[in-house]
Each structure stands twice: as C-alpha cells, then as structure tokens.
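Course assignment 3, question 2. Fill in each field.
Student: A.L.
Task: Predict the tertiary structure for the chain below.
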Amino acid sequence: MSEIAERQADAQAVFSPWLAQASILVVDDEPGMRNFLVRTLGPRCQRLEAANDAAAATRLLENSHFDVVIIDNLLPGQSGLEWLQEQRRLGFFSEVILITAFADLETAIDALRAGAADFVLKPFRSNQILNAVARCLDRMRLRRENVVLRYELDASDSAIRVRNRLIGRSPRISEVRETIERVAPMPTSVMITGESGSGKEVAARLVHALSSRAEGPFVPLNCAAIPAEMIESELFGHVKGAFTGAESLRQGLFLYAQGGTIFLDEIAEMPLALQSKLLRILDDKRVRPLGTNREVPVDVRLVFATNADLEVAVAEGRFRADLFYRLNVVRIEMPPLRERRDDIDELAALFMSKVSVELGVPPLLIDDGVRAALQSYDWPGNVRELRNTIERALILGRFPPEFRGGEEGGAAPAAESLEAVEKRHILKVLADVGGNRAAAARILGVSRKTIERKCAAWNV
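Answer field:
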C-alpha cells in the first residue's frame, strides 16, 4: 500500500469515514499556514485547492464544488467573515471553518450567525483541524441522508422493497437488463418510459447501482407530486428572502445529490418554465438557487421517467421540443406486465415471501387455479398492481374471487378488450372502498390523478 493510501486509510479510521471522499478549499494569505493545511489535509482527502485571498477563493467556487472551506478571518481586501456573509447571501451552501489568531466573543458570534460551522483558534495542531473537518463532513452527510430519506419514503413502495432488482427472465425484461448494464457506466442521461407501475423507478435504481456513482446518493422526485410553485425551490434551493416564507438559506435536491444520481419521475408534468432551466442544467451542469444570480456547479447524473407520450406532449406544446431531443439520447422502454407474462409467477412468489414477512402473516398457497388466473389477467396497474393484489390477499387471508378460478370467479374473458378489463377492475376497486379515489389509487398502485382522469372519461 502506498504512503498516500495508508494515510487515507488512517484518516478514515481515526477521523470521519467521509474524509477520503471530501473536496476541501483552504484560504489563507500566510504561506506557512496555507502549506501546513495543504500538507495535513491534502493526502487525506480526495481533492484540495488553496487560495491566498477571498477573491481567489470566489473564482475557485465559480468552477468547482467544495464540501468544506477553511478560511482565515484576517485576509487582505476582505475578511473571511465578510466573505462568508457575502457568499451566503449569494447562495453558498458548503460547510465553513473560520480560523483566526485573534479571538473575541463578538467575532465568534458573528461567525456562527453568518453560518460558519466551526471556529478554530491559531495556533492549532493537525488533529484539531482534522477533527473540525470531520465534524463538518459528518454533519453534512447526516443532513443529506435525512433529506434523501424523506424522498425515499415518498417513493413508490414497490421500488423501495424490490430496490435494484429487475425480476424476471422473459426476453423483454432481459433486453432491458442488458441495455441498463451497457449504459449505466456511462455519464449519459437516461430516459425510461413505460406505463405506470411497470418498474421505471426500479430500473432507474439499477442504472445508479451499476454506475460509478453507486456510493453516492440516489434522490428520487416525482414531478407530479410537487406543486408547480414549489418544485423549482425543491430542485435548486433558495436564499433567504427569495420569496415569501423563505426565512433561511436552503439547499436544493441537485446539491444534495452531488456525486450521485437524481431521478425525475413524471418529467412530462414539469412546468414549461422549469423545463428551459432543466435544459440549461443538462448542458452546463450548473444550477441557480432562487433569489440569486449565482450559478453553482453540480456533479450529478440525471435519469428521467414518464408514462406519457412525450412526442404527443411536444406536438401539443406541453413539453419543449429541444428538451425532448436532449433527453431522448438513451431511451429504455419498460414493458407492461401483460407483455412479460413469463415473469408473473416469479414476481408473485417474490412478493408473497417478502410481504408476508413484512405483515407478519403466513404466506398463501399460489395453486394452479390462482396461478392461471394471475397469468390470464391483463394487469393494467402492472407490477405495482400485482404486488398490491398479493398484499391485499395476505391481509384478507385469501385471494379475491377473480383470482381463485372456478365458478366463483375467474380471470377476465380472453375476448374482452384491455380497456374493458381496466374499467371493470377500477370500478370494482372503487366500489370496494366506498368510492374513495385516493384509497383506490393506493390499492391499484397508480396515482390519484390517473383515477380522476379515468373516471372523468367514463363519466363516473
């Protein structure tokens, strides 16, 4: 093992486990102190840059993202505290450690108010600055994990439970798996299309898991689930006072996803005004938080998904043509479950074993009659509906009549159209839940908006 590798391993063992992956900026006008910090931190972190004044630090920030900035308070031209206050107003989110040889209570209080994470007095030993950096990195990671976890919990249940696995051996799903394995190591953005519940988020997670970003965060966002007036702030963040209610600085999902993947589901629902900004991000890899003219460099991979026909949306003026052509480089079509019937038995068995454990109930026998009914049904809600059907059967202790075969109820007649099957099944579920459309949407594994649209079309 090389000396640098040994030092990085030592840093991970003694200090923060994230230090070896961190990017750090050191700002100090004294060559001796600057060199000391470079020698102490450089071998232990992934990337380190140094500047001798605030102006040079600002130029470096324009082109790179840093997890931690260590800045001296007494600098020529502009003090470290003044620089920090200015940068926070412009949309600067990194952790900052202020170092100074002249300590007073007022400066320490002002530093904390300006958003400094730590305040270190000169002279200090290497362990002191390493511990301060470690605290910053641990706090940063904890904050990121909390935000990402919130969006994970909002993600579809099936995607969370199945995670990165694309189940099945059918030719269609095998082709999808091969395409993902080929494109995942590349930096290209990916568009995943397919019906609701067909496994688009599971495919997106697999793209992330097989990429060089697998150790970074995977941040999912359903564009249809966020109000149009809030989605820009969610994605890009904002500075204090950017709009009514913006009482503090806030990072957006693009910054929380640094080094990882951001998954934008239902991209067709993104407002037109935001589509132009997304196009610029794809081209420039920079985001602009609300309330500032500053553009922040980001290092993320984008994966998109939609169950809508984007060509039709472009023709109707609901989706930008230039963004469509920019997204439509690598396109993965997720097949509906009715086109991969060979996988139904394996999926049903998987859901039965997993969900029975989650519910704490014994699994049900999937006999030949049930198996035949599952195979014959057309699954308008796709894999998500199959999982919800298994869960409902476990809760009730038996499969519903239409999946038990025999005279009591069989699968839909083969000659019945898919639209008729879909209508009959949705209306039956609605009747079972007393017309509660939100509950029906949860059972069917589709969005409430889908149920509303179907009912409007049927005049229900």
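Instructor remarks: Residues 338-457 form a domain with the Helicase, Ruva Protein; domain 3 fold (CATH 1.10.8.60). The chain has a mean pLDDT of 84.
Grade: pending
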